[in-house]
Amino acid sequence: MAIITSGASGMGEATASHFATHGARAIVIADVQDEKGQNVVLSIGPNICTYVHYDVSDEEQVKTLVDSTVNTYGRLDIMFSNAGLSAYDKLMVVNTRGMVASVKHTAKVMVEGRVRGSIICIASLAVSIGLVGTPLLKEMLGFENDEEVDKVVELSSNLKGGVLRPKNVADAVVFLASEDSQFVTGHNLVVDAGFRV
Asked: Can you tell me where the transmembrane regions are (predicted)?
């Protein structure tokens, strides 16, 4: 059972699809983009995926999301805290306090339920700068065309022959949430294609 914040687009959407492909029993997409979130549910399948309108900057909504998920599914195995913004006025509220609230409330229910789960947090701003295909990067660069963004990002990447995509981050998240990473803890896994600012 997984919660993916900011799961309606970009890395969150790619990760939700990846979890479904790898056999997740239930996925909750938590986002403020209602139409996109509902479309992700339809693409994955409403039998395993649901959408919840959710603003990570409101800690009470974080607690309600975690508690309602546990009440509905009986447990919470994975929290992918993926929400992030580029605008500084909300940057600290969403990227920092929102992530802390996600960890706080998820860890509490995992300990109480004796669930050995995964809490995966992403530094959205840092990753999205080097990640093509995210709305955040397009907004920051002011580009509409993916090819223009590809060119700019590949010039700033040490690894050549392509650009970092949401699926690359989704691969890392699925690995960290799997049994294959059972002895990986407190690790900063850098998935950035050697991007340099």
From this structure: none
